[in-house]
Amino acid sequence: MATATTSSPRKSVKKQYLQRPHVAKVQDMYIWTDGTGEGHRWKRRTMEFDLNSIEDLPEWNFDGSSTYQSEGSNSDMYLIPAAMFRDPFRKDPNKLVLCEVTNYNRKPAETNLRITCKKVMEMVKDQHPWFGMEQEYTILGTDGHPFGWPSKAFPGPQGPYYCGVGADKAYGREIVEAHYRPCLDAGVQMAATNAEVIQNQWEFQVGPCEGINMGDHLWVARFILHRVCEDFGVVASFDPKPIPGNWNGAGCHTNFSTKEMREDGGLKCIEDSIEKLGKRHRYHIRAYDPKGGLDNARRLTGHNETSNINEFSAGVANRGASIRIPRTVGQEKRGYFEDRRPSANCDPYAVTEALIRTCLLNEEGEEPTDY
């Protein structure tokens, strides 16, 4: 059976409607995470005028039975505006509104990890925790086949593709370019991008962001990527091991520092934090992918630039370790460290919260403390 595809003529038709004179009203797109802990959902509403404060935006509701978040017999769930960004597709004054989700009884939805992350970040705000997350992703066709790969064969082995250039090395650059600019327009703290080790794998970096902003900015950057890929008729996959075998997986390496770490002599604080992380490895593995470590088990094999999921390790400039201390940090005795364990499909709120709990709140054991 033939399937419908998005064609260029259809995109041209859409443009003639979006280029009409702008009416004196505002369109706000509410975005949230569904019950999978990975997927984005959205609804758009018309506002009579521009509201520039997140506190002024009204709450909304949706059918949670259609997003894996509730039963049909009691399906209403609430969208609580949490962070606001400019809409890079419809331009000012329209907005993207990142939302928290609560159940009918106003308790946080199971996948609303932002609420506890924000509480923890408030507890340590005087230490000014900074994060930078390196989001890897793989471009697939709508049939799930790696974009640009031969239909019944494999491309050449890994080696020439990382930061590569050329039609035989970089597949999907137009998508990467089309994603970068809208993120900047939206106000996302976009830091960098590059081609990754697999031929159709890419990375974008968000940060430095302080506290809760890290999760907000990464979720919105992911949403914008999905929207751009939609226009190109391809899929951005955050699967930690999208291609089985001797191919690199996809992670979300997380860089972390505090004010003390960034100051002279901060290496001692970095080393102390790494020692704490080593004692709580299993807790972090569970927090670093939406399936409690099952997704990362396919990726963290000790091969293809990963550590072994069952072992904790750290080293200077070692990309096969759980924690990497950049060489410049080792030389300057201050800066940050990189946690290489988070999976590409991690929830950034869970990752950043776990780092704060272990490194700054000195929690121990395999369960988080209830404050």
TrEMBL record:
> Its catalytic activity?
L-glutamate + NH4(+) + ATP = L-glutamine + ADP + phosphate + H(+)
Cofactors required = Mn(2+); Mg(2+)
Please name the GO terms of the biological process aspect recorded for this protein, alphabetically.
Answer: glutamine biosynthetic process
Q: What is its EC number?
A: 6.3.1.2
Which SMART domains is this protein grouped with?
A: Gln-synt_C (SM01230)
> Which positions fall inside the GS beta-grasp domain?
24-106
Supply the enzyme class, top level: ligase
Q: Which SUPFAM superfamilies match?
A: Glutamine synthetase, N-terminal domain, Glutamine synthetase/guanido kinase
What residue ranges carry the coiled-coil annotation?
Answer: none
- Keyword vocabulary terms for this entry: ATP-binding, Cytoplasm, Ligase, Magnesium, Manganese, Metal-binding, Mitochondrion, Nucleotide-binding
Where is the GS catalytic domain positioned along the sequence? 113-371
GO cellular component, alphabetical, reads: mitochondrion
What is the annotated localization of this protein?
Cytoplasm; Mitochondrion
Predominant location category:
cytoplasm
Which GO molecular function terms does the record list? ATP binding; glutamine synthetase activity; metal ion binding
Q: Which family does it belong to?
A: Belongs to the glutamine synthetase family.
State what protein this is by name: Glutamine synthetase
Species name = Heteropneustes fossilis
Q: Which gene encodes it?
A: gs03
